[in-house]
Amino acid sequence: MNCGVMFYLLIGRPWQFDRKVIHEGASNVYSVLVGSKRVRLPSLATHSLVPKQPPKTPSFFLNSREFEQEVEEEGCSYALVITTATTSIKTPNNEKLEGLLKEFADVFPEELPQGLPPLRGIEHDIDLIPGAPLPNKPAYRCDSVASGELQRQIEDLIEKGYVKESMRPCVMPTLLVPKKDCTWRKCIDSRAVNNITVKY
């Protein structure tokens, strides 16, 4: 999965008015006013017309003159200082915390145990409104990568005993949503079933 930053942007007229947007028709480039600076926003088509150049390795280091110039322009700065700790300092609070974690190690396992918790004597059920028509929603379309990931997650949940085959008369469509770390989150669309569920 690609986590790039290129995306389509739809700019409305009120936003253009507030930012004093200027559109250069020949090059199809928008420039907006951000604070006291004017920032150019080239379109995707403009990027494709520009001949590709070999990528340059970005440099995130500033010399003293560039650093002073940035501070003067921005008005504030943040410094990241990297140090190597030679000795680990432990406070009494840390030792108490480590003692608690060791004492209750069974409560904080590295991985969750297989299967569901034991029955507690009170079992909840989702009751549907009697006589309500069952929803018949189509499944969400997905490509082969998303379909394989969805199958993998479901098989993993079945193997661990967290889910089992449903005996319900209707199903809820499932889709995958990308997370910030480029992994997938499985989401269940239960809106149609919620509409015919008895509200206790």
Calculate Rg over CA atoms. 28 Å
Task: Kindly provide the name of the CATH class of the domain at 126-200.
Answer: Alpha Beta
Give the neighbour order of strands across the main sheet.
1-2-3
**DSSP, total strands:** 5
Stretches with pLDDT under 50, minimum 5 residues: 46-50
* Structural class by helix and strand composition: alpha+beta
CATH architecture of the domain at 126-200: Roll
**H/E topology pattern:** HEEEHHHHEEH
Give the end-to-end Cα distance, rounded to a whole number of Å.
42 Å
What's the main sheet like?
3 strands, antiparallel
Shape: extended
Averaged pLDDT, please? 76
CATH-level-4 superfamily name of the domain at 126-200: HIV Type 1 Reverse Transcriptase, subunit A, domain 1
**Number of distinct helices:** 6
CATH topology-level name of the domain at 126-200: HIV Type 1 Reverse Transcriptase, Chain A, domain 1
**What level of helicity do the residues show?**
25-40%
Instruction: Please report which band the strand proportion falls in: under 5%, 5-15%, 15-25%, 25-35%, 35-45% or over 45%.
Output: 5-15%
Give your account of this protein's structure.
- Among the domains are: 8-50, no CATH class; 126-200, HIV Type 1 Reverse Transcriptase, subunit A, domain 1 (HIV Type 1 Reverse Transcriptase, Chain A, domain 1).
- The model is unreliable at 46-50 (pLDDT under 50).
- It contains six helices and five strands.
- It is extended, with a radius of gyration of 28 Å.
- Helices cover 28% and strands 12% of the residues.
- The chain is of the alpha+beta class.
- The chain has helices spanning 13-18, 44-49, 64-74, 92-103, 144-160, 191-195; strands spanning 22-24, 29-34, 37-42, 174-178, 184-188.
